[in-house]
Design brief:
Layout (H helix, E strand, L loop, with lengths): L19 E4 L9 H16 L3 E6 L9 H14 L5 E5 L4 H13 L3 E4 L3 H13 L15 H9 L5 E4 L6 E5 L3 E5 L8 E3 L7 H11 L4 E5 L6 H10 L6 E5 L2 E2 L15 H6 L4 H9 L14 H7 L10 E2 L2 H14 L2 H11 L7 H11 L6 H9 L10 H7 L4 H13 L6 H15 L4 H12 L7 H8 L1 H20 L1
Parallel strand pairs: 1-2, 2-3, 9-10, 11-12
Antiparallel strand pairs: 4-5, 5-8, 6-7
Helix pairs in contact: 1-10, 6-7, 9-11, 12-13, 12-14, 13-19, 16-17, 16-18, 16-20, 17-19, 18-20
The protein binds one RNA strand through helix 4, strand 7, helix 6, strand 12 and helix 11.
Length: 488
RNA sequence: GGCCCAUUCGUCUAACGGUUAGGACGCAGCCCUCUCAAGGCUGAAAUACGGGUUCGAUUCCCGUAUGGGCUACCA
């Protein structure tokens, strides 16, 4: 997957350097669909612009990061086809970089040590809250002389490192939202390095983005308010400020950030629900981005060719499982039979019938299912006689005269040599006519007998596919069952 | 509370000053039909509100409302 580790990209033919973008999830468990959309927009942007897509795992939060959680993210990305060109890079293995950057900032006077304890800070914050004003760090650390600061640090006094925020309005140029202004007094001298030496998110992000020569930061809207901090940090680092693009959030139907409460919110869950990765990719790509021309179903190639941040909207969007299901059905309708069989087999919990049966059965059921789970279930019914019959179906389709009529049909089918759908239909219709009833009076009970339910694929195709022996066996079992029913 | 962002059918979105405000999901009806789907056709359904600017605002500006985000020694 990784195409090597070169950290500079070749220039485009017009001489401008190729864009470098990254997806930077924190390994907090399963991959959220909101994260996938961010990853996918980065990927599409990179492909469209002939750039480089980098994966970086943000695991600096030791309490919350575990190795297996990173593995899960990697496997979900692979399943989704989110192929990265460089990485994965783990922030937990890049501490030297952050340490060096912090020391440089300190030496250059762009950052300073602050010796307040968490308790002190907490008290300040509570006090500010009680007085109804916004808390801001006092800035006391700024007044400690460099010599004094060094001395206390070497003496082992616990401290954090804070950035000296410039006293100026910071304007973030957002590719999606335009210029966004943040007044200086809204920004604090925030913490770069914790007292235990761990770099904090904002710091490691900017150091890494600088070191990886990231040109475009495409991420969720929830980071917009953090961006002025990042701009200030890039400047302090003496690094070029990347371009920013903040995507609208993905929400649940209650317009709150999509989460577990709304049902499936991770790729694993949708995979387990029988959703194809191609369909999920397509659906998510269209959340926020609209290609021209009223198109909905787009191939990966089309998306990679046409994706543009110019056509990405700024507003949040509600995740609609119904439309995802529709889109999945569209992909099921178009996928080659062999391929679809493999997907259904992967989704199935029990063994599917042999491909000689499964392949034609797929063609019968593909327009009738929305997920590979449903498809697998439909296929299974060809290898296993119905264990029970739909109660409503029995009530509606089985009348006192039904057994006798079915006996006649069975007798006719016993002698049937041509077991093709056409011949079976002719035989059934002739039988119905000879009894003097409509064909439906036979068709519906027969479907119930063969499949256990009253809805499904065209009956004569099912009969033909099941074969003479199985069909007759199921019909006779059904006759026995309804005979028992009548007695009790 | 402060700062920031967003606001077109129920939902996803198109229309980047002039359209009968378009498409898709979902919903309803009709057609097709052995059922259920799929498919085809038709229909109901939106510019949050109030002010400006303009010959003309969905579109630009300002308020209000609503929703969301940020405001940690989390990411």
């Amino acid at each position: 997957m990784s195409r090597g580790r070169l950290l500079t990209s070749p220039p485009l033919s017009d001489g401008t350097p190729a864009p470098r973008v990254r997806f930077a999830p924190s390994p907090t468990g399963s991959l959220h669909v909101g994260s996938v959309r961010t990853a996918l927009d980065n990927l599409l942007f990179a492909r469209r612009e002939k750039g480089v897509f980098i994966l970086r795992i943000e695991d600096t939060d030791v309490e919350r990061s575990k190795a297996e959680l990173s593995e899960q993210i990697l496997s979900s990305m692979k399943w989704m086809g989110l192929d990265y060109d460089e990485g994965p890079f783990y922030q937990s293995r890049r501490y030297d970089l952050y340490r060096a950057a912090a020391e440089r900032l300190l030496a250059e006077g762009k950052a300073y040590r602050a010796f307040e304890t968490p308790d002190e800070i907490d008290r300040e914050r509570k006090k500010a809250e009680a007085e109804g004003r916004a808390y801001r760090y006092s800035g006391a650390g700024r007044d400690i002389s460099p010599e004094e600061s060094e001395r206390r640090a070497h003496a082992g006094e616990r401290h954090v490192v804070r950035l000296k925020m410039p006293a100026e309005t910071i304007i973030v140029q957002d590719l999606i939202r335009g210029p966004v202004e943040f007044p200086a007094d809204a920004l604090d001298d925030f913490v770069l390095v914790r007292s235990d030496g761990h770099p904090l998110y904002h710091f490691s992000v900017c150091v890494d983005d600088t070191e990886m020569k990231i040109t475009h930061v495409i991420r969720g809207d929830d980071h917009l308010a953090n961006t002025p901090k990042h701009v200030a940090l890039f400047r302090a680092l003496g690094a070029p400020v990347p371009q920013f693009a903040h995507l609208g959030m993905i929400l649940g139907t209650d317009r709150k950030k999509l989460s577990k409460r709304h049902g499936a919110a991770s790729v694993e869950e949708w995979r387990d629900a029988g959703i194809l990765p191609e369909a999920l990719f397509n659906y998510l790509a269209l959340l926020g981005w609209a290609p021209g021309g009223d198109r909905e179903i787009l191939s990966r190639e089309e998306m990679e060719k046409e994706f543009s941040l110019d056509h990405v909207g700024a507003s949040p969007s509600v995740f609609d499982p119904e439309k995802l299901l529709w889109m999945n059905a569209q992909y099921i309708a178009r996928m080659p039979g062999e391929e679809l069989l493999a997907r259904a087999a992967a989704a199935a919990t029990q063994e599917l019938p042999p491909r000689g049966v499964a392949l034609p059965a797929i063609e019968l059921h593909r327009p009738r299912v929305r997920t590979t789970i449903e498809l697998a279930r439909a296929l299974r019914s060809y290898g296993q006689d119905p264990q029970e019959y739909d109660a409503d179906g029995l009530r509606k389709q089985v009348r006192p005269e039904t057994p006798a009529q079915l006996e006649k049909l069975v007798a006719r089918y016993e002698t049937q040599t041509d077991w093709s759908a056409g011949a079976l239909e002719t035989a059934l219709r002739e039988t119905a006519e000879s009894i003097g009833v409509g064909a439906g009076k036979l068709i519906h009970p027969v479907r119930l007998a063969l499949t256990g339910v009253t809805v499904g694929a065209p009956l004569f195709d099912v009969l033909a596919l099941l074969g003479k022996e199985t069909s007759l066996r199921r019909l006779k079992r059904f006759l026995n069952a309804i005979a028992r029913e009548v007695r009790t």
